[in-house]
Specification:
Chain lengths: 185, 281
């Protein structure tokens, strides 16, 4: 059973999202990986504006394959989120509400999600062809020279994700593992 | 002596990369289907369904399976009777990587300097090339587009001989536990035991060329693979780390003689999207 969610993720929406929920996201998200995160946090440090309004925004950790002619985007699955942990805290304090990626987050980032009310959503790693179908529009909005790593604005429709960390401190990786772990003596 | 033209090597490499990034080997698909049968968690069965749907879409619509089309690992078995003409071997290989990534709309994920400017080379070169010289007059080319997510979860240690077989099992199981959801499970675990440290990691990677689930021909090694697989699947990590009973599709271990003082153990982690292909010229 999947829950339809229209972006942006307001506090009203976030309050109903629980670890393990399957969501179909529709609306605008931004892509950013390592290099863009570095630049954004540097910009914030220098008091410069970010290329998009971070307040209420959702970031997708993703760098696509090149787009074939006539297509909207190439393969577009998530990258490992932990590499963005060093920057995520700062962006959450600036108002970032949603992060989409794969793999576990640091304790600091998890604490910040509870404190500032933000969620971490898991997309299926390696399922870039499938995910590309839910992307209806894609445009580079900044740092074009970074190629695959450039900052993109995406319009998505029914993008399937799973709530990994909710605003209540839930963690799907820990809870799921506890359920199926077989202790060996 | 047999002559092989450099251009044929280039075209073959290009074709292998382009094709392998859109189609998984049949043994990998079979292992994913089998994982779905075995998996006890509904959440992970759903993940595996989506993974299999992704495999279908990638081939049908010519969209790479995964956006990370990897570093270009190329393993060559070059027959000593082969004479390469009209160019040199490694230039031909890199030209093939360039051509395959360009024509196949594959992502260029290589940066020129690891810890300095990190400028993208724009064509996914240089390839990571390993060459074995073997008897005969053929050139066997194996390509392995290796994603960063799983590669980052690889590890190497040198155990003492006293730690023995149990030490190997514990090292691998603890690593899989520690990296959890990061390498895109269900994974294939390449294990290299013995040699010197460089050799250990090389045979761990080479183990990933084996058909998924095909046990080592050495019964002792095959038994070790089974034990590690059992323990790994008891960790409860499951597909994408959402909690389940299939964390690994297979463990492939390779061994090599080593120094009396040493026991290197290397783990080369492979995500479920285990792309690989080979051709013989």
């Amino acid at each position: 059973m999947s829950k339809k969610v229209t972006l942006p993720l307001t506090d009203e929406v976030l309050k109903d999202l629980k670890t393990g929920d399957n969501l179909l996201l529709t609306g605008v998200i931004y892509t950013a990986r390592d290099a863009v995160h570095k630049r954004m946090v540097e910009a914030l440090g220098q008091g410069k504006p970010l290329p998009f309004d971070i307040k209420g925004a959702t970031i997708y950790y993703m760098g696509p394959t090149p787009t074939r002619p006539g297509r909207i985007i190439g393969s577009a699955g998530p990258t490992t989120s932990s590499r963005m942990d060093a920057y995520a805290l700062r962006l959450i304090t600036e108002g970032l509400k949603g992060m989409i990626g794969k793999g576990s987050r640091s304790g600091d980032v998890k604490d910040a999600m509870v404190k500032y009310k933000a969620v971490y959503l898991g997309a299926i790693g390696g399922a870039g062809a499938l995910i590309s179908r839910s992307i209806k529009k894609a445009e580079v909005v900044a740092y074009e020279e970074l190629g695959a790593e450039a900052l993109r604005r995406l319009e998505v429709e029914d993008f399937h994700v799973t709530v990994v960390n909710d605003i209540y401190g839930g963690d799907l990786y820990e809870e799921g593992k506890a359920k199926y772990q077989v202790k060996t003596p | 002596m047999k002559e092989i033209q450099a251009g044929d090597i280039t075209n073959t490499i290009a074709r292998l990369f382009e094709h392998s990034c859109h189609y998984l080997p049949p043994d990998v698909i079979a292992a994913l289907k089998q994982a779905k049968e075995k998996e006890k968690s509904q959440v992970c069965r759903d993940v595996l369904d989506r993974i299999l749907e992704n495999v279908e879409i990638a081939g049908k619509e010519q969209i790479p399976l995964c956006q990370d089309t990897g570093a270009a690992v190329v393993m060559l078995e070059l027959g000593q009777e082969v004479h390469i003409t009209k160019g040199d071997l490694y230039t031909a290989v890199n030209a093939g990587v360039r051509q395959g990534h360009d024509k196949g709309y594959l992502r260029k994920s290589i940066v020129s300097q690891p810890c300095f400017a990190r400028v993208n080379t724009q064509d996914n070169t240089p390839a990571m090339i390993h060459t074995d010289i073997v008897p005969g007059d053929r050139l066997k080319i194996s390509v392995l587009p290796k994603g960063g997510g799983s590669e980052n979860c690889s590890s190497l240690t040198v155990l003492t001989p006293a730690e023995g077989r149990q030490g190997v099992v514990d090292f691998v199981v603890n690593l899989v536990d520690e990296v959890g959801s990061n390498p895109c499970p269900p994974v294939i675990i390449g294990v290299g035991i013995g040699g010197t440290t460089d050799k250990a990691m090389f045979i761990a990677k080479k183990a990933l060329l084996r058909k998924v689930g095909e046990p080592s021909p050495d019964p002792e090694v095959a038994d070790l693979e089974r034990e590690i697989l059992g323990r790994v699947n008891n960790l409860g990590i499951g597909a994408m780390g959402y909690g389940g009973t299939v964390t690994a599709l297979a463990v492939h271990a390779e061994t090599f003689p080593c120094h009396i003082a040493s026991m290197p153990v290397a783990v080369n982690m492979q995500c479920w999207c285990a792309r690989r292909e080979e051709a013989v010229l």
